[in-house]
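Practice problem: predict the structure.
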Amino acid sequence: MRIVPGVRIATIEVGGLRADEAREKTRDWARAQTAKAIVLHAPQSGRAWNLSLADAGARFDVDGAIAQALAVGQNESLWERIVLGQREREAVITPPLKLSEAALDKALRRIGKTISVAPQNARGAMAADGTIKVIEPERKGVQLDVAATHAALLKGGPDSLRNGADTTLVIQEQQPAVTSATLESVRYPLVALDPAWPCTKSHLFTTYYGSSSSNRRHNIELATSHINGTILAPGEVFSYNKVVGPREPKLGFRDAPTYQDGQVVPGPGGGVCQTSTTLYNAVLRSPGMTIVQRSHHSMPVHYVPAGCDATVAYGSIDFQFRNDTANPVLVAATTKDGKLSFGLFGAEAPTERQIRVIAGDRRYNPSGTFSVTTRRQKVDADGNTHIETLSNDTYAPYHGG
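Answer:
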């Protein structure tokens, strides 16, 4: 069966052709048509991306167009066919454009990945005088608004893309969670003075590592640098392992003494538990902080009393706490002259008058281990005293090494 004379599909003369011949010509036309470009421009940089109609999920209904072409003249009466004969019908068929909107969104998301810039929080650090300084300002992020760009492209309907298109991408700015203004607001020290604890000075909790090996000192200072300046939003949980990361040589950590199976042996990152322990003690003395996860060492450590330590091991043992205040909290730290100090800072001054951490006496067990109960005593703004048990820890004797 042939198509009657005078029938065109788009710009292609198909009159007199068999269906298979017309289909091949129409497919060639459709391939050329779907190679046309949708040009997408960045609103400010002027950068442009070319997206073919095919990549955007567009296709032309070739089979439908052929069916329409074959139908021309089929409803004519016998008399009309005799009169018209081989005269051209002047019928033009426009192949329908079909668009997969899911494919369009997928293509837009690919472009979005090349545009996306994550917002960068402002970072602060504790200066030598104990004040908080902005060391790196915030930076806005940018992200492609796929839905809005999709809508802009199709505002005239899918058929408006038939000959390609030219439009501007819709870009959204993303605000960082922590700005310089945020850091300026978190100026109140949260660590409460503990007069019974000699390592607590003003708003910092301090331990000493100056007598350690050079590798151990290096690990402490490296781990501390990862933590210093961390901001916790209200309700956010701090994870030591997430913030510090793996303690691997390729990341700068060195071999130093660690506790393993009741022995002291060299291992990557030895000494980082002093940073988790020092931070743990600062957190215990900071109102509004809730301990989520903490484990004690297998043997006592030399820098805090038994019952006041917090060990970590990447991938298995973490130290975590949650900011249960209504405002952001900054974790600040310094390492200087063999002193490791942590402080927490908030947007409001704490109401507690005093927080004391009390490590009890050692209770020796028949197995040779000993146990310690640690409590926390809080004195509120009205002078009322509250005591809670923090932990009951059991240690093996220190074997040295």
